Amino acid sequence: MKTRKILPTGGCGPVRTLINKFPQSIIRVVCPVLLVLAMAGLSPGAASSSVDWTVGDVFVASGNGSYQVWHSADLTNVTQNPYQKVQTISDGSIGATTGCAVDSAYRFFGTNSTSTIVDQYSIDFPGYVTGTLPPGLAGQFTTGNGTSTGNKSIVFDGQGNFFVGHAGGAKSLELWTRPLGSGSYQLANSWTPQVENSGVDWIDVDPLGTTVYYTSAGRKIFKLVTPGTVATIFADLGQPGLPNYTLFALRILPTSGNVLVADKKNIKQVQDGGTVVKTYDASGQDDWEALSLDPNGTSFWAGDATTHKFYRFNIQSGVVEAGPYTTGANASLGGICVHGGFSLAQPVSTTLVSQVNPSGVLSQSGTNTIAFNTLSGATLTASLIGLTSDVKVTVRESLVQPAFAQSDPDVFSFNPGNPNFGTQPIGHNMPCDHTLTDLFSPPNTSTHPYLGLCEVFEFEANPNAGFTSTNIQISPDPNIHETTPNLRFLRNLDEDVTDGVVNYPASGTKSKCVFTVNSQVLTFDSSQVLCGNPFQSPIKGQTFTKNSTSSITFKFQALADPNGSCGSGPFLTDQGPHALRPLLMITQLVSNAAPNSIPVVVAGKSGGPPTFTFTGNTWQLQVKTTGLTGGGTTYLATVIDLNNVLSSFSTTFILN
């Protein structure tokens, strides 16, 4: 049995999503996004992550199956805002943890070298609960193919695959891939290149994603050009070797191609051929083993496996910028990585800048809305609802391969009004949508440079306070016309936060999360025909008059056979293998802001969730105008089928 646990604090907070594609629109919410979406605030506490991970957070392998998460409130001034431990995440085991990595959709992966497993943590840790996996894990993979043991480190290429190195047994280097539509990574290739005193221990990958650099508890840095089997030597640092100097974790520097490597007694920057161009150290630290680059591009982190202390160094000057911090007496220090600190092979994220508000700061006295131009030519609009103090909004966008941006194995419904809100999987392994990137062409050109790539948005509000919810909308270039079916706006790759479908704008989420636009695969022929445009009632743009007792009737018919008749059917009903479960969501369209999600109040004594009932060959739902504002306000009504039989659809209406 699969369930979704909702915790009372943390996460992206209230979320609202709306997607408008022209001529259709969809509302969705996810921290990675790639369509025009609109998200509207859900009830507080809907998100389930106890801590919002942000770019620059430091993950430290602390043993017992665990990683500590360290956060600074202001990365530009860590002296005044030192890092603090905010969370410990675990796979529930007692194994040794070492290397780790973050994929291009901001998912965290850790190694458990005792069990020779790779853990894929949900962004919504620990609230993601599914299948037989430990709480908070979206995947767990036993590496080594039964012959290699002690997986020490992991690194991602630019295609959605990861390499993992093994210190024991057959001492292999492996490549793992997650096929589209699959919920699990699978072993794709394996090599057993030459080693020194251990196996393929600590690894990194070059910008092409094919050449793996590695150390082997000795004095050499090796290079293996995959899929070859013979390694060459990048650097041989010679004597004295064990126990005084031993090479451990390493990272390739992006501009020079030099390698930073932890060499036990100190840290070295090494050129191709072995020349040491710079040495780094801190007093009293003589067991440097952990090392990782910071996403700021000017710093790196390193940790001592004996004192359990870790520091941030400036790459150019060697000055200690932050630290020492310590994992504590009852914890180890086996590895370190930084959120957003991608390998050189992974796509570089772009921090979007608002043309109207370059600072990104929203205030109560000014405006609560900010708009960004996305890489696909769309507009991402964010509105912070109930804003009472200054908040800085940061949005980072990455163009990634579809393997990175497909959803987690289970996606749970966080759609407003769903009776199984947050507890029932409504989709699996949803592919990302790349309609907008496929259609994008730079001005005065006929090229399409982003064909096949998906958009991932990492959204942060700092501080994550002083507002009640965030509405987010993604709208395509008005010159783009598309009819992508059944779009969904996902938050954190496991929460469907769609609340409107209008052919590409989308709206909202609170605070820090990852958004993506994905496509829900239908379980039935997608060529169904709706009798109406798309509702029989209300018709598009219809105007209603609000009074104290007024209500609006929503009706539609859906043919099970495109050759059928709207008079006689056959119809999609609430029975049989293709039974529908239509859910109605309503958003208020707001000028120069992201749409607002409106609670749907069902008419009648029983009230209940806003799901349609089937009677007289027609799906019907009576909705009170309670909570809807008159005065010529325009609303968007959207239907999604919780059973994934019928594609989503929407229409607008006006209330006087």
Can you characterise this structure?
This protein is mainly beta. The protein is built from two helices and 49 strands. Strands 28, 29, 32, 33, 34, 35, 37, 38 and 40 form a nine-stranded mixed beta sheet that branches. Strands 1, 2, 3, 30, 31, 36 and 39 form a seven-stranded mixed beta sheet that branches. The chain has a five-stranded mixed beta sheet with strand order 42-49-48-44-45, with no helix packed on it. The radius of gyration is 26 Å and the shape is elongated.
Per-chain topology:
Elements: E1 15-20, E2 25-26, E3 38-39, E4 58-63, E5 66-71, E6 84-90, E7 97-102, E8 108-112, E9 117-121, E10 137-142, E11 148-156, E12 162-169, E13 173-177, E14 186-191, E15 202-205, E16 211-215, E17 220-225, E18 232-236, E19 250-252, E20 259-262, E21 267-270, E22 276-280, E23 288-293, E24 299-304, E25 309-314, E26 320-326, E27 335-338, E28 350-351, E29 361-362, E30 369-373, E31 379-385, E32 391-400, H1 402-405, E33 411-413, E34 425-427, H2 435-439, E35 454-462, E36 469-475, E37 487-491, E38 495-496, E39 501-503, E40 513-519, E41 529-531, E42 542-544, E43 551-559, E44 582-588, E45 596-598, E46 613-615, E47 618-624, E48 633-641, E49 649-655
Parallel strand pairs: 1-36, 1-39, 33-38, 42-49
Antiparallel strand pairs: 1-2, 1-3, 2-39, 3-36, 4-5, 4-27, 5-6, 7-8, 8-9, 9-10, 11-12, 12-13, 13-14, 15-16, 16-17, 17-18, 19-20, 20-21, 21-22, 23-24, 24-25, 25-26, 28-32, 29-32, 30-31, 31-36, 32-35, 33-34, 35-40, 37-38, 37-40, 41-43, 43-47, 44-45, 44-48, 46-47, 48-49
